[in-house]
Amino acid sequence: MLGLVARDWWVFAIRGIAALVFGILAFIWPETTLTVLVFLFGAYVLVDGVSLLVALARGDKLARRHAWAVGIMGVLGIVAGVVTFVWPGLTALSLLYLVAFWAITTGTFQVIAAIQLRREIDNELWMALGGVASIVFGVLLVASPGAGLISLVWLVGLWSVVFGVSSLGLAYRLHKVDAELSKPGFRAAAH
Questions:
Q1: Which residues fall within 8 angstroms of residue 164, CB to CB, at 6 or more apart?
Q2: pLDDT of 165 higher than 90
């Protein structure tokens, strides 16, 4: 198994380079990155919606069994895709509010859980603090949506850079393993 993965070390290197480039571009051009991400989302939901309706029209067994749900999901996907291309700013803002609502809701439930668990676990304060941090994050997104959108792009960019560096590190290590496994003496000793 290690030999197979090590032989393809270059795949990890390409993934790492692509992630680094994307992450750096997200920091250099956050508005452009956001626009590209929104349009990619629009393309995805449009293709997804069309493919669901095609499956329904072709009469796929699963699609027929749940025809009404597949039809609704297909139409909603197409509508969401069209809306994304016609009003990309609305899509980006909707995504921001979805993330904000999710953060506020999960944070609230986490604080409630911490309060209820305070007699059963130690250090429940950490759970409550995590919940409060989520609530504050959500409120900040709602209070300043423009900065929130750019912040989300920067977070994606940061993740991409970290992922890229770790992938390059793995590629370097796998390249060394592959070189070691390729030595003639190693193959003979292994058999």
A1: 15, 16, 17, 18, 19, 20, 21, 22, 23
A2: yes
